[in-house]
Amino acid sequence: MRRSFFLLLMLLVLVLNQTAHACVGKILNIGIPNSANEQLLAEMIATLVTERTGTTVKIIVYKDERELYKAVKKGDVGILIENTDHAMKMVAKPRESNAKTAYETAKSEYRKNLNLVWLDPLVSANGAAGSIYYAPVLSLDTLSNLPALPKLINKLSGILKEDAYAKLLKSVKSDDKPRKVARDFLKSKKLI
């Protein structure tokens, strides 16, 4: 009886040890074009995810959107930061002046045609044709491997007001490190 209890205990320790290692060591790649907007938002997501889950997050900068979407299709990127203006072009829809309508169209079309899931918008910014939304977009593979990720990332939604975002972006453009700007902002909002 004692021996079988000991064996059961050892088996339990081995199983729990393997489960613990399964969470640690996950790597999540965020792909962005070379833009201060996307870099700042990617740093916020990367910092939040790393601090709250222990998942290693890498930000990969691509020279253009074509290269980025090629990496997404190959499975090299789990998250990208997209804006509604560019998304409408990607799904061959006319530019939409209403940001909410553009967001809903992009969300629906990306899911249906690209197997990508839009999360809540992070910020609304002025674009060439009016207001545009920036939002994280996840691959279905990322969503299935990290099902709690949307809830965590959506905590960023609504905390970035346009004027505060403009100040943060100005700091990044004036040579402040995006990681530091993102970390300081998240700390000020008590998210990390």
TrEMBL record:
One of its GO terms (molecular function) is transmembrane transporter activity. One of its GO terms (cellular component) is ATP-binding cassette (ABC) transporter complex. InterPro entries: ABC_Gly_betaine_transp_sub-bd (IPR007210). Gene3D superfamilies: Periplasmic binding protein-like II (3.40.190.10). It holds the Pfam family OpuAC. Residues 1-22 form the signal peptide. Keywords: Signal. Residues 28-126 form the ABC-type glycine betaine transport system substrate-binding domain. This is ABC-type glycine betaine transport system substrate-binding domain-containing protein.
